[in-house]
Here is the input.
Amino acid sequence: MVSLLINSLILLAVVACGIVVIVLIREKLRGTGAGRGDCDETWEQTLTEYKKLRDRGVLEDDEYRRIRTLGDPFSRVAEDLSETSPLTTWVTGDDRRK
Here is the structure.
């Protein structure tokens, strides 16, 4: 009976140490910005730097637009839609090709 109690305490200590290690690793990742949720912030910071380069004249508007669409695939679809698309004509009721 005593050996069962000792084995149970050892197992409990191993599980507790594992939980502590997992919590510490998660806190470390969250603090250093290496976690999964920080990818958007990193992309926004990079995009801000490219925008500064565009404002200084180092990048052209076309180049900046291409870089921006790398992070946002939906903007690429929006750029491909022209004002003369049938959807726009249907929604607004007028033909902008005139």
In short: Helices lie at 2-32, 39-56, 61-71, 73-80, 86-92. The chain has two domains: 1-34, 36-84. DSSP finds five helices and no strands in the chain.
